């Protein structure tokens, strides 16, 4: 069953009437018959067979005579949505040698053409139904399964029936012709090419080492060029007929409809499905086996030193055990919880050592059941230098201590408090768990052959376990985690000759010195003992914001707050603090310190609390401390809960009132920045990440990624000199949205942010700062050191900025989505040149300049001109010819459904209203948001295209392999720009 459920972000609020739009009526099909194959009362549902875990009664299960199993559930989060998952128990491990990549290729082919969909009609069909391809409509192929995913918005019985019909045609009757295979293989090869490079080769070599002798060693879902190019309609059909059978299929449907309706549609469209011939037994995936002569006390087997120029150093070793199916019982889950507890204890010690200036940047222990192939305990870390042996000795020493001595009860209690807060929060938030997440939980449970459990059950099992856990028991559990028949290791390094296989084996076989100083000393820290921020502030003004029942509170010291107390998301409160001038306030010669600030400002601590003390004082609490820099403001963000809200506000306010300047986080950030820089040139995407922002800002030095020389010149003292005044100056806005008591929230703000000293003003030149855009000209060329068949291209046009232009920015979002559909068709479907080209619009509202429209694609070097030609053709065609009504409907319907869904969440309103204390115009413009994003005309789109694309060539950048020249001729014909 699920042990550590992930948090759910969607809520169940109600849109204001002013934002609602009338929905088109859809003709209703006849109601399908009552489901016939539900699990009857007293019977054990198929997912709970062999388990004593209490059944989650909100699920309804069924099994058809053909062997297909299904699970359905009523869920209204988000409202009017149904999430459908179709899982096929076949992935890359089910392929023969000659079929490598076929499971993933089939995933593509099912979307290309099927019984109820003509060629390439899947994407536009789902768009017309309101689903966005890539997020609402998607699929995944793993070594053990293939899953088709649909999150269908604005659902009714007729739309459900049509969608289930289409899905049944895709799964039961895809058109696997030679023509379709030949059309789809280039797209898959483009995907493979874009994933390739040094990182991928290092990952493949690591996989071959860790899973030596098992199918998993060389069964990547993407396949090989040889097997994909050799695919035919007949060969792919043979794989399909072998594995796409009802007995290998599980369908999950969760949503805002009667579960009997969901079940009936499954039975209607899949009930008469029959597989071809006799069923094929699942293949044997193999077991990890120690080589002959391995030392049973330290059974080191295969090892590999992997040289990958340009990559960061990383070391992984794994203690491997055979995977076996289990009965998912309560006792078994108590054991999983103890496993998780043992890992948490070690990981906290490893992190503390890294923070204190250890020989590694990070280190982590993680147990995982991998692809039903092995039950393994993985140890991974990143050495700070070429002295990987010292880092390995440090990490092994921490683990050796955990294997030699039981943890203290204080350590155990600390981790148990963390677990309890997670499980208790899941119980609190049960009624707002998103349907898509619930559907995925069933799919994942089936994949690992386990059950699902209600949050209350998980908490009950945890409480039962915690009553019995002892230090001696945890010592035994830890030893089990690090026992197995074979240990394997792989070390990735950029330097040739740094680590041979023999040297790695010797290091792994070397005796381990127990790190007796690895344990974290117990400390008794309480918020009650911390000094006050200052004298509680006074409220200068308070009243409604004018939207819903959101409140604005202005304090006498200049701090302004926006609060919305509501109970729509039980147990969750979002807190965001906006302060200062953001990038506007940073000088060009401070770029390196700005980059380090993103990594180290929070870790530098507050008052008497360093990073370790901040972790300890938040033990068992739901608190956060995320920092970011935007064009117009710095931000702090956290997700907390009402009982922790006052302390969360204290921690944030203390960052301004009593900042701490620990040097270790800065030194660690410097090491991380240096290691990251060395890997940027390894592939085109890395070069884009390094250089694009700087170039698109017209070479503004604030946005230049600091190189190792610049990083080396920074110091902890310099870090403080830069960041201390940035924390002191500029306005502060605090937003608190969620499940809390408004009076208590205002009182907490009065004691914290209201108690801060008066803020300094932003300098006039900072407040009026603008951001540039480069003049179009010759294509800017950058080079990477990766594969010779990889390149990337960017084309960008300047747009607008500022709050007043928000209505136009929303219309521009429609236009860019139309552009994106055409670019996808041109570069992926027709040319096969790029797997996932994308275009997006950025319209900053905190500043008056810096907006842009950017199109990006990864492709072959020879296809760079084709990308530019296609983007030019699309832009010019949109500027001269209005898009069709159908083309707009394929964009506006998914946008409408997207807004309807996300606007049911607190974060939507927080993000829309942030900054409104500085510019109240945001509030009034919120009322037109839905219409601006979903209502337009072809003529309006043409006018926008003329404005932004008609008179400019667009700024261009290409990243090509070192040693090559940029092609100037179009070698792949650009697709037609029309609809």
Automatic annotation (TrEMBL):
Signal sequence, renumbered to the chain: 1-27
List the Pfam families: Peptidase_M16, Peptidase_M16_C
Top-level taxonomic group: Bacteria
InterPro entries for this protein: Metalloenz_LuxS/M16, Pept_M16_N, Peptidase_M16, Peptidase_M16_C
Sorted keywords for this record are: Hydrolase, Metalloprotease, Protease, Signal, Zinc
Ranges for domain Peptidase M16 C-terminal come to 234-416, 732-891
Domain Peptidase M16 N-terminal: start-end pairs: 78-218
Q: Which family does it belong to?
A: Belongs to the peptidase M16 family.
Q: Spell out the protein name for this chain.
A: Insulinase family protein
What is the species listed in this Swiss-Prot or TrEMBL entry? Qipengyuania profundimaris
Its lineage reads:
Bacteria, Pseudomonadati, Pseudomonadota, Alphaproteobacteria, Sphingomonadales
